[in-house]
Amino acid sequence: MNGFWSVWMKVWCWSVGVFGLVLLGGAFAATDGPARMVYALVGAPDLQFDAPLRFSVGLMGAVTLGWFLTLLATLKATELLGDRAGPVWRWLTLSVVGWYVIDGAISAATGFALNIAPNTLLLVGYLAPVLASGVMRRG
What is the C-alpha radius of gyration for the chain, rounded to an integer number of angstroms? Predict the structure, then answer.
């Protein structure tokens, strides 16, 4: 992947990283404003950020930051592999679609189906460059 789609994918990865920082900030009273806003947007405007919730949100921030770093490392690996990176793109796509299905099912089952909307934007943001560039057909 190169050119426009490569830049798109890097911006997509960094958006995952920024979201991880937002969640990480929810672990602390001094920085929980953006995380509170996220929860309000998906239907929990009066959520009480007690110690267990701060732990959970902060932990999800750490996991999301780990996902971001893994995505960046994978992008670098695909750049180094060039035309042989098709299998890496197929596995990465499977992992992103798998996350989408699991996260969406949990969101719906727990009464936060609205969370599926931003998840869909994230999925489409990933699939657009992958499908348009044809990287999964290579290798």
Answer: 16
Report the distance separating Cα 73 and Cα 41, nearest Å.
Answer: 31
Number of H helices, E strands in the chain: 5, 0
Q: What gap in Å lies between CA 132 and CA 29, rounded to an integer? A: 42
Name the pTM for this structure. 0.87
Q: Are 133 and 139 in contact (CB under 8 A)?
A: no
For 98-131, what is each residue's pLDDT tens digit?
A: 999 999 999 999 999 999 999 999 999 999 999 9
Indicate if the alpha-carbon torsion angle 125, 21, 66, 85 is positive or negative: positive
Q: Do 74 and 88 touch, CB atoms closer than 8 A?
A: yes
Where b means 16+ CB within 10 Å and e means fewer, 35-73 reads bbebbeebeeeeeebeeebbeebbebbeebbebbeebbe
Please count the other Cβ atoms lying within 10 Å of the Cβ belonging to residue 114.
14
**44 — phi, psi (to 5°)?**
-130, 65
- Collapsing DSSP to helix, strand or coil, 8 comes out as helix
